[in-house]
Hints:
Elements: H1 3-15, H2 18-25, H3 29-43, E1 48-51, E2 54-57, H4 59-78, H5 82-86, E3 94-99, H6 101-118, E4 123-128, H7 135-139, E5 144-147, E6 157-164, E7 166-171, H8 183-188, E8 190-194, H9 203-210, E9 216-221, H10 224-232, E10 238-241, H11 242-248, E11 254-257, E12 266-272, H12 280-301
Parallel strand pairs: 3-4, 3-5, 8-9
Antiparallel strand pairs: 1-2, 5-12, 6-12, 7-10, 7-11
Helix pairs in contact: 1-2, 1-3, 1-4, 2-3, 6-12
Amino acid sequence: MDLNLLMGLDALLLEESVTGAAKRMNLSVPAMSRMLARIREAVGDPILVRAGQKMAPTPRALELRGQVHAVIWEASRLLRPEKEIQAPSSLSRTFILRANDVLAGLYAARLVEILQAVAPNIVLRFSQEGEEDVEALREGRVDLDLGVIGATGPEIRVQMLFRERFVGVVRVDHAVTRSEMTLQLFSELTHISVSRRGRTHGPIDVVLGRLDLVRKVALVVPNYYAALFVVAASDLTVAVPQRLAESAKEYLPIHIFALPMSIEPITVSQAWHPRFNVDPAHKWLRESVREAVKDGFSKSRA
Length: 302
């Protein structure tokens, strides 16, 4: 199969549409249809089949999608001018990082500072967490995944950045700040649950349940920043990552306390597709993320 057919196959697998692939390839729809026919003959599989008003990939197409995109990416990398690879100052590139609001809020400023000092034409685009699918890494829709990395494909590279524990937060003049925080007192507080899916139950409730204790959740919000602003202006309490709490304390009238229970720390990592292993720009991005996280940790402990 020649490179043009591979590029056509890549476009078809990404778009799952002949019309969409034609636009991506800057071809007419009839020309793209003819290319699909050649691809089907070469692969021995229909690749895309009609499913109602749309086209759906076959199992063979799904199997090929990540591999084909990796081959196209490697080919394009080999054909880049050498100076583009070796001169960060002239690099013009957008990196897409998938991360939650906490990581973006804590480390984006320092990461941009590190990158801009060497490559002023670099752009970072943070993509909100949602469906943390591995396909986004395989297809190049996400350059780097940051956060608590779940199950991935066997080829995905994962590097631990840090381990984080949770702490409790109330407003600075809350009555409980004058008392020792016990499990009983903690369970009697009115809580905020932080959940993108609207859940009111989590690891804290599991621990309390083992002791026949139940907490009252009065509010559910989708992110920790919203929870901290609410806590600062109310009698509610919330459990948040320690680094976020210590950073927020500089700007909000909040009091931080150790949770009166043992909650397993979370492991925050970065994950990427192995085709980026030898890419100098991507390697530099990963090293910069590690530096930004380390700097942020040092500041939070200062």
